[in-house]
Amino acid sequence: MSSVEPPFPWQMSLEEEMASFQALKPRLQVMWQTVMSRDEEAYTSVVVPSLTLDQSELQKIAGASFYEERLLFLLIRLRNPRARMVYVTSQPVHPMILEYYFQFLAGIPASHARARLTLLCAYDASPRSLTEKILERPRLIQRIRDGIDDKNRAYLTVFNSTPLERRLSALLGIPMNGVDPQLCDLGTKSGSRKVFREAEIPLPEGAEDLKSTDEVVEALADIRGKRPEAKRAVVKLNESFSGEGNALFRYPERKDKDSMRRALDAVEFAVKTESYDSYFGKFTKMGGIAEEFVEANEKRSPSAQVRVSPKQEVSIISTHDQILGGPGGQVFLGCTFPAQDQYRIRIQNAGARVGDVLARHGVMSRFGVDFLVWRENDRRDWNMCALEINLRMGGTTHPFLALQFLTGGQLDPGTGLFYSQSGQAKYYKATDNLSSPDYRGLLPEDIIDILTLDKLHYNHRSESGVLFHLIGAVSQYGKLGMTAIANSRDQVEELYDHTLAILDREAAAGRRPTEIERPEPPEATPEKSMIAE
Question: Which end is more exposed in the chain, N or C (fewer Cβ atoms within 10 Å of the end residue's Cβ)?
């Protein structure tokens, strides 16, 4: 490539960028209707799995850059023999990891799928978002453009959308399949509470649009006035993407504001390394909310995943029960699918109502809605309230993609169950947080060996097995993700526990007695994987 100016408007102004982004939206609507209504239509999917989130928060997650590998489940799109994909990462993807995914494309030769995949890399491991790295590299942008067969039949897939992704969409000249960044406030903690009110869905007592500790104290006092029995409350950063943005507040015996302020000094942060000054410095910058902490004998945290199409059609993708841990049980560790029978349809319906409101505001996106359900004294009826909206992909997105990837089935909206092509109801348990010091030093080749020798691979005949992700992170960080799929909840739990036992056994067996002591990596708290719901 010569050193001449690149053949696209690199110096595009913000006004030109905004106009281009808006002009591209109708193209996505037309293409969506064509691709979704016909089989084997030719198109190109450009996948940029950038975690364009608060980088100071993101750095708390061990191996965060490898989370870009989670969307490799989107290789399912190459099942269409006329589809093409451009997949961009910060660092190279190990060839064996790609081969691992290609083997699951039933009915498609791996060589054929591989020929339709353009894999590109920024070769930049710095702790910044992938989209930022791409925008710094005009020639990489041109290579992405070169991988697009027909710009009129192509679209951009992102993990979350910000003005950076909007600019990339405009520079590539293809529409973005994601929420318009101008509407992202609807997915903040404050925005979520407003949407829930508009959708007439119960939400915890609290206040939003707070900007200072004085306003937080005022809100906490107001909650106590309306809920005299309240023992705890939660303060949340507006734009936090995980449980790390929460702080647990314990009410003092005295109800005056001075006592509240002193109690605020002792809030319990979800991340051990967080400090009062750092947290409330971010709070002053981005704002946040305070809301009651619901106390109950039995609580669960289901979520609904919803899509608003480019035609403003609302559809339910899935429901999950989230597995939570950390202080106050607010940090996302993993999920089980589907949500429990007792409240699954209720969660679906509430998620659809949120989708209707967001569609009226012009949102077009895949998103998740987190709920809390609880009951006392073994009562049959569950109470429900909505907690937050995540206007992006989340920690439950990629395991559901894995289920689709492997089974080719679909969700039955009437029951909330997912059925494979054989008609078998499917269940899974997933996590991004399999972590052990013994796993450090395992190579992707070792993980594949363990899967193969111990017959953990997903089996298309039994429609059960394990699929790993974040494989690239295991050697350095001793961490990887897993989705265990089976034909009942009990089978899933058995498979999940069996796989953990084998991993621990094989990893421990691979350590040498005289192994040189290595410094441990920075302590990582359980992540609310994106990351999180």
Answer: N
Model-level pTM greater than 0.85?
Answer: yes
Tell me which fold the domain 298-392 belongs to.
D-amino Acid Aminotransferase; Chain A, domain 1 (3.30.470)
- Of residues 384, 374, 325, the one with CA closest to residue 351: 384
Q: What is the pLDDT of residues 360-389, one digit of tens each?
A: 999 998 999 999 999 987 677 899 999 999
Q: For residue 81, is the peptide bond before it cis, meaning its omega torsion is within 30 degrees of 0?
A: no
CA 533-31-7 angle, to 5 degrees, is 95
- DSSP code for 127: S
Nearest to 307 by CA among 248, 367, 240, 230: 367
Architecture of domain 400-509: 2-Layer Sandwich (3.30)
Three-class SS of residue 207? strand
Q: Mean pLDDT over residues 313-328, rounded?
A: 85
How far from chain centre, in Å, is Cα 76? 18
Torsion, Cα 323 326 329 331, to 10 degrees, reads: -60
pLDDT tens digits, 159-214: 999 999 999 999 999 999 999 999 999 999 999 999 999 999 999 999 999 999 99
